[in-house]
């Protein structure tokens, strides 16, 4: 703490966002460029350097938050970068994308707004790249052991970087044409510009990680062949099996899964397409599902020029303040949060049929109806109580000629034959079974990230990637490893 009274004298101030009218006209990140650095030192100085830093406990990566808050407050950016990268391979991703359970667990948050930990993390990561504090770290010597990582999302990338740096020869297999998983073709550019991803991939290539794109393991290449060729295999294929909405009219044209819609918008940003074939331009859009994926659809539809956009959430509207009984500090509570996309929808009045921020809470979809050509035209819904029971007299309709389903994911897809080809045991909910060492029932095959944990967060994916790397290194090195293992396969976020 450069200033022990910082938390009493400095109010919380976040990285400001650009005006909604400006940012929806482009795909760039929503923040005002250059506006974080001038405020972040004083914000870091609000940290009380707690004896028991709950922020650290609340982060799956075990980020050394008070250490780097102090270093930023003292403008020692190089040391801050070293401390940050000691626990996180990709802080520029989490600094932009994480919902920040650390801030919910911050001791200051008991009676004041939390320290802006996520902003401090992002500032350190960006400064580290700008100043060259994070050069490639190729291994001093090679172990002669080989590892195949299947899937190039944050789990696969973190595992590959750790294992490459430990001296193993690592190849990452990815079925898409580009590396990155959901960071590439799920999360929109306005939440994280892909240049951050490219920079890390270049770093990893320089360190020696090999990448094989457009290769679906299980279909283009037999999983057994991969197993025979490598000393260990890490499955990091994500949870891509989306949930369906089985209501009358689901078969109408114009109803799509969020992950059919979002990747096309990402491809426009990549320059592959001039216009998305599913563009929302001029259409009335209804998004079914109140989570972050739905919010990403909302921000994308607004940028594409939708005539209106409404997001349906089956849950009742959460409160603005923590429920001290059900979700006491330091857990990460479900709160009414105004994401950048909701702020845009509110400011641009994008949803005349909904609440000001485009959301309709406690709303359940009954059916869709269409026109003579079989295209969806309306979504019919009913209000529900907290137990999801329909409330009589609350039926209503919304105009909808593009419907996006954002209802979550159950586990890895089975269509590529990878899970069945290898004979992997799976849990009843569809995720890959593994033991406390991240090992599956097939010798030499490990599983991590959303494929095994189920749909989660980038911060958990990176933590799982680091932990599975330690398990693989132990397996290859005869029982020892110097790699850190921040989480176990059965660890879960803090709850009351
Ligand atoms: C739209 C959307 C937005 C999100 N936004 C956020 C956010 O803002 N913040 C946050 O913390 N989390 C967010 N998440 C969740 C987060 O993206 C995931 O938890 C995380 O990406 C999981 O990482 P992963 O590496 O396990 O899987 P993924 O990122 O899904 O990567 C898996 C990769 O494996 C590849 N693959 C699958 N099968 C094969 C095969 N047989 N052969 C070769 N390759 C294969 C896939 O193509 C994919 O590239 C979001 C999720 C979605 C869907
Ligand atoms: S809990 Fe909050 S105030 Fe305490 S060390 Fe962590 S960031 Fe600083």
From TrEMBL:
Alphabetical list of SUPFAM superfamilies matching this protein: alpha-helical ferredoxin (SSF46548), Nucleotide-binding domain (SSF51971)
Gene3D superfamilies documented for this protein: Alpha-helical ferredoxin (1.10.1060.10), FAD/NAD(P)-binding domain (3.50.50.60)
UniProt entry keywords in alphabetical sequence: Amino-acid biosynthesis, Glutamate biosynthesis, Oxidoreductase
This protein's pathway: Amino-acid biosynthesis
GO molecular function annotation: glutamate synthase (NADPH) activity
Regions that span the bilayer: none
Pfam name, any one: Fer4_20
Protein name: Glutamate synthase
Organism: Streptomyces ambofaciens
């Amino acid at each position: 703490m450069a200033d022990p009274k910082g938390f009493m004298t400095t109010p919380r101030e976040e990285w400001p966002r650009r005006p909604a009218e400006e940012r929806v006209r482009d795909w760039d990140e929503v923040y005002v460029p250059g506006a974080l650095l001038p405020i972040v030192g004083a914000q870091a100085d609000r940290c009380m350097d707690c004896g028991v830093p709950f922020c650290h406990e609340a982060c799956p990566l075990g980020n050394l938050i008070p250490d780097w808050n102090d270093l930023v407050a003292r403008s020692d950016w190089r040391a801050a970068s070293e401390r940050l990268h000691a626990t996180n391979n990709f802080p520029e991703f989490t600094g932009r994308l994480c919902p920040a359970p650390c801030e919910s667990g911050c001791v200051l948050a008991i009676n004041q707004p939390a320290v802006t930990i996520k902003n401090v993390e992002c500032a350190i990561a960006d400064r580290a790249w700008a100043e060259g504090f994070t050069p490639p770290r190729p291994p001093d010597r090679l172990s002669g052991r080989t590892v195949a990582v299947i899937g190039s999302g944050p789990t696969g990338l973190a595992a590959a970087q750790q294992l490459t740096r430990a001296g193993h020869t690592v190849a990452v297999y990815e079925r898409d044409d580009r590396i990155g998983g959901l960071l590439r073709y799920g999360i929109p550019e306005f939440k994280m510009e892909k240049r951050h991803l490219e920079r890390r991939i270049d770093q990893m290539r320089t360190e020696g990680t090999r990448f094989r794109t457009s290769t679906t393991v299980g279909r283009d290449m037999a999983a057994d062949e991969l197993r025979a060729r490598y000393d260990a295999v890490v499955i990091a294929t994500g949870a891509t099996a989306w949930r369906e909405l089985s209501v009358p009219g689901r078969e109408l044209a114009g109803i799509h899964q969020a992950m059919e819609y979002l990747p096309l918008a990402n491809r426009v940003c990549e320059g592959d397409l001039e216009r998305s074939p599913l563009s929302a331009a001029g259409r009335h859009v209804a998004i079914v599902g109140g989570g972050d994926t739905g919010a990403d659809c909302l921000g994308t539809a607004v940028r594409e020029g939708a005539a209106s956009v409404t997001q349906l959430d089956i849950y009742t509207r959460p409160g603005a303040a923590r429920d001290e009984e059900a979700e006491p500090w330091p857990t990460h509570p479900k709160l009414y949060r105004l994401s950048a996309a909701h702020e845009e929808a509110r400011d641009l009045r994008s949803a005349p049929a909904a609440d000001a921020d485009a959301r309709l809470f406690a709303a359940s979809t009954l059916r869709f109806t269409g026109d003579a050509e079989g295209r969806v035209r309306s979504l019919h819904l009913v209000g529900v109580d907290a137990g999801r029971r329909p409330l009589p007299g609350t039926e209503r309709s919304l105009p909808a000629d593009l419907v996006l389903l954002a209802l979550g994911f159950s586990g890895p897809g089975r269509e590529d034959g990878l899970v069945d080809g290898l004979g992997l045991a799976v849990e009843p909910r569809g995720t890959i079974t593994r033991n406390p060492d991240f090992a599956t029932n097939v010798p030499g095959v490990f599983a991590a990230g959303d494929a095994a944990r189920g749909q989660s967060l980038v911060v958990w994916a990176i933590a799982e990637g680091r932990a599975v790397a330690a398990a693989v290194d132990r397996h290859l090195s005869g029982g020892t490893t110097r790699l850190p293992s921040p989480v176990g396969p059965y660890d879960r976020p803090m709850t009351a």
